[in-house]
């Protein structure tokens, strides 16, 4: 693989953005700001390798296709499109009180919000450890939990995780912890 053709990569990124409903939906799905997404889609700056891996895992598509156009592009996925087009704030006024709730958050979005605030934008999450823990979880899971895990990851991302080519992003890791009934901090490599 020689020089990266940034124009061709940007063209494929625009294709992926259209699959989920446009640049704003693409930025929500990948967790990038809209300004950063705009820069990548319009060839203002090249995509760093970390972002390439994130996008490859989130869609999922092969890095070969993303970088060089080799292989088949990902097709439309209603779940992915729905996730990309959900509003960023899914909180309602229902159930708000002056005292914080003493119960553990149950939804993955609430766990994600709690985790990112305690981790400080997830800067301490060690992706290498998280990838190892996901693979360990796959090996140790009961058949019931394994089905739940497969449902969260999807077939293509599961293959990439098992082979060590990808690590799910933070919201998927949090959802995975809920499905597997393990501590999110353990799965992310922040605790034992």
Helix-strand sequence: HHHHHHHHHHHH
The count of DSSP E runs of length 2 or more, i.e. the number of strands, is 0
Structural class: mainly alpha
Strand content: under 5%
Largest sheet: none
Number of helices: 12
| Estimated radius of gyration | 17 Å
Estimate the mean pLDDT confidence: 74
Report the span from N to C terminus. Answer: 39 Å
Contiguous runs where pLDDT drops below 50 for at least 5 residues: 89-105, 112-125
* Fraction in helix: 55-70%
Inertia-based shape: globular
Domain count:
2
Oligomeric description of these chains: single chain
Description of the structure:
The chain is mainly alpha-helical and 192 residues long. The chain folds into 2 domains: 6-84, 434 Repressor (Amino-terminal Domain) (Orthogonal Bundle), CATH 1.10.260; 108-187, no CATH class. The protein is built from 12 helices and no strands. It has helices at 6-20, 23-30, 34-41, 49-58, 63-68, 78-84, 108-119, 127-140, 143-153, 155-162, 170-180, 184-187. The chain is globular.
Could you list some keywords that capture this structure?
192 residues, mainly alpha, 434 Repressor (Amino-terminal Domain), 2 domains, 12 helices, 0% strand
Question: Summary?
Answer:
By secondary structure, the chain is mostly helical. The chain contains twelve helices and no strands.
Task: Give the arrangement of secondary structure elements.
Layout lengths: L5 H15 L2 H8 L3 H8 L7 H10 L4 H6 L9 H7 L23 H12 L7 H14 L2 H11 L1 H8 L7 H11 L3 H4 L5
Helix pairs in contact: 1-2, 2-3, 2-6, 7-11, 9-11
């Amino acid at each position: 693989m020689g020089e990266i053709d940034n124009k061709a990569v940007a063209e494929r990124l625009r294709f992926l953005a259209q699959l989920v409903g446009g640049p704003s939906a693409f930025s929500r799905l990948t967790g990038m700001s809209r300004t950063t997404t705009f820069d990548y889609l319009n060839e203002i700056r090249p995509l760093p390798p970390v972002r390439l891996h994130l996008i490859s895992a989130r869609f999922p598509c092969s890095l070969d296709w993303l970088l060089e156009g080799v292989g088949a592009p990902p097709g439309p996925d209603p779940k992915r499109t729905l996730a990309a087009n959900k509003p960023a704030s899914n909180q309602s006024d229902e159930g708000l009180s002056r005292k914080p709730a003493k119960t553990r958050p149950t939804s993955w979005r609430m766990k994600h919000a709690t985790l990112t605030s305690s981790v400080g934008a997830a800067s301490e999450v060690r992706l290498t450890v998280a990838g190892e823990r996901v693979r360990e979880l796959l090996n140790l899971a009961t058949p019931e939990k394994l089905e739940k895990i497969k449902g969260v990851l999807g077939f293509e991302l599961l293959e990439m995780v098992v082979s060590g080519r990808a690590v799910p992003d933070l919201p998927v890791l949090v959802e995975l912890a809920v499905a597997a009934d393990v501590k999110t901090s353990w799965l992310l490599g922040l605790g034992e």
